[in-house]
Predict the structure.
Amino acid sequence: MLVASLTIPADLLPADGRFGCGPSRVRTEQVDALVAAGRTLLGTSHRQRPVKSLVGSVRRRLAAVLGAPEGYEVVLGNGGSSAFWDAAAFGLIERRSQHLAFGEFGAKFAAAAGTPWLEAPSVRSADPGARPEPLVEDGIDVYAWPHNETSTGVTAPVQRIDAPGALTVIDATSAAGGIAFDAGEADVYYFAPQKNMGSDGGLWFALCSPAAVERIERIAASGRYIPEFLSLAAALTNSRLDQTLNTPAISTLVLLDEQLRWIDEQGGLAWAAHRTAESSTMLYDWSERVAYARPFVARPEDRSPVVVTIDFEGVDAAAVAAALRANGVVDTEPYRKLGRNQLRIGTFVSVPPADVAALIGCIEYVVERLPRIG
C-alpha cells in the first residue's frame, strides 16, 4: 500500500494534529489574542506605554510561572537562543565554562564559548540518548547544560553546582513552562519561547539571579569589547524599562503573554508539569507494550516529559510519519541529524493528553497496514 493512499478513519484522528518539537502547537486562544492586539499594538512604537505594558506583563507573568526567588530578574533581548549563546560568551563567562553536551543545544553553546578571549571550554559529552554529569573543575566560572535536550528527548536536573563564585546556567528552551524545577537552583534560566510557551521567534528570555546580574554588570564594566546587540548589560538595562534594545517581535510577546496567563489560571507550573508528564508517560508506556517500538532514552529518569523519542524496530518510522502527515497529523519526524528510525513527538503543555491518546491509535492503525522491514 502506498503511504499517501492510506486513510486513517476520522474518528481516530486527534482534534489537532500538530505534534512538532520545533515551533510547537499554538493554541487558538493565543491566535485570538493576537488578532485582538492587531489594531492596538502591531505597528506601534515599542517605546510607548502600550507595548511597554505588554513587556511588563510578560516579565511579571514569567516570574510568577517560573517561581522566581526574591531578587531574581526577568531579562529579555532581541534574537533567539543562538543570540543568547553569543551574548553569554561576551558578557556572562568570565574566563572558562563547562558545558554538558548531550544533544544539539548543549553542543552549540559549547561551540559559542570557544572564543579567542576565553579559555577553551571544558566539554563533557555523552552518546545520544544519555547525559553526562557536571564535574567541578578549577577555573570554571560557568557550568552550563540544557534542562531538556530537544534533539534527543533527554532531560537533566536543574541543580546548582557547589563551586564558589561559579554560575549555574541552564538552557530551558524546550523545558520552560512544562517541566517543574526550583528556580533557586539556577543563576540563569534562559530560553526562546517557541515550545511550551507556544510563541514565536525573535526574542530570548532569561531568569537571572543577583549573582548573575552582578557578573553581567562587572564584565560590562571591565573594558571587554562587547557588541551592543549582544550586550547582556544593555538587555538588562532595557528590560528594567520594559523594552528591548531594538524593536521586539510584538507578535511573540502577545502569544507568550496569553500562554502564560492560561498556564497561571490552570494552576501554574505544577499543573503544566503534571499535564506534560501524563501525555509523555502514555507514549513511553505504549512503546514498552508493543513489540515494534521502545523508548530511545534508556534510563526512565532521563526521559523527557515534553519531547518523546521512540525507536522503531521492523517498521519504517519514516513511512509512519509520512502516513500520519498525509492525514493531517504532522511533525512527528525525528531530529534530522540523529539519523535514527524513530519518531519524535512534542508533548508540550498546549497538547492535551486526549490528542496524545488519539495519536497512539493512529500510529497503531498505520503500523498494522505497513509492510515490515529488516
